[in-house]
Amino acid sequence: MLHADQRTTLADRLEFARRERRPTVLPRTEHPDLTLAEAYAVQADWAAARIAGEGRRRIGYKIALTTRGQRQAFGAEQPLYGVLLDDMAFEEAQPVPFDRFLAPRVEMELAFGMRCRLEGPCSEAEAIAAIDWIAPAIEILDSRTVTHDPQSGRPRSAIDIVADAGGAAGFVVSDRRMRPGEIDLGRIGAVLRHNGEAEDSGVFALVFEQPERGLVWLAGALAERGAAIEAGDIVLSGSVIKPYPVARSDRFAFDFGPCGKIDLTFA
Fold first, then answer.
1. Which of 79, 160, 178, 210 is deepest in the core (most CB within 10 A)?
2. Which of the four pLDDT bands, split at 50, 70 and 90, describes residue 115?
3. Mean pLDDT of the region 211-235
4. SS (H, E, C) 90-118
């Protein structure tokens, strides 16, 4: 069982790694029996410390491991979520500062802007009714930990990722807004172009078969911890492509077909 002081130590170490841009050991290296619930508690402590110490605001959540293949890769039985803070939001028109991150990667997602509170358990119809708008979005992932345990060689697990803020580090939301029911979200396609070359693509049917269903899962997962999706929250759906690594000066064009395009540069 992870005690409160051990949770604080883990959260402080992850925050130090973020600030100094130096990866720390995997949480499960020091605590091999770390549970999913304890990992979410570490994540909550990290967010609470930044909110209290820096005046940051929680503005939403990201969902990850939304496909069977992603979950199998990390030994996960279910998706996971991470908290979004206000300093993670970037504007498309401005270059993203590469030095904010340790090892950034990008993913193509949809963002849901929430009209009202959504508490789990809920139905898909209730989730859709709670949506104000939908927009193309890019998530910037980062890892404040090493990728493998240096002694055993064990790779980072889903529990390690959950403790590490669920990998949340940044995001960009398009100005193009859609309303619920305006388009079949599962039919939206996505193509990533890196420095002018097409590198990956996907279709949003890969995300819970219909991306809106992610809100049902998230509301239920939050309810287990006494929380809910709140009015005004932004929720990132989960990605249709594999995380794509970023280098300084990289230029990306994220094409969502008739739903718009996001151009992004890392400076």
1. 160
2. very high
3. 98
4. ECCCCCECHHHCCCCEEEEEEEEEECCCE
**Secondary structure element (H or E) that encloses residue 202, with its range:** strand 197-203
Q: Which helix (H) or strand (E) is 119 found in, with range?
A: none
Angle at 213 between CA 176 and CA 65, to 5 degrees: 90
CA-based radius of gyration for the chain: 18
Q: Which two tokens stand for residue 144?
A: 């404040």
Which DSSP category does 195 fall into?
A: T
pLDDT average, residue stretch 54-64:
98
Residues 6+ apart with CB under 8 A from 250: 194, 195, 265, 266
Q: For 161-204, how does the pLDDT look when each residue is reduced to its tens digit (9 = 90+)?
A: 999 999 999 999 999 999 999 999 999 999 999 999 999 999 99
pTM metric for this prediction: 0.96
Here the tokens at position 231 are: 């009015």
Task: Give residue-wise pLDDT tens across range 145-162.
Answer: 999 988 888 899 999 999
Q: State how far the Cα of 193 lies from the Cα of 201, in Å rounded to an integer.
A: 9
The answer to whether 255 touches 193, Cβ cutoff 8 Å, is: yes
- Which phi and psi angles does 133 have, rounded to 5°? -145, 165
Which long-range contacts link 44-51 to residues 24+ away (Cβ below 8 Å)?
44/83, 44/225, 45/7, 45/8, 45/10, 45/11, 46/11, 46/14, 46/15, 46/165, 47/83, 47/85, 47/165, 49/11, 49/12, 49/15, 50/15, 50/85, 51/85
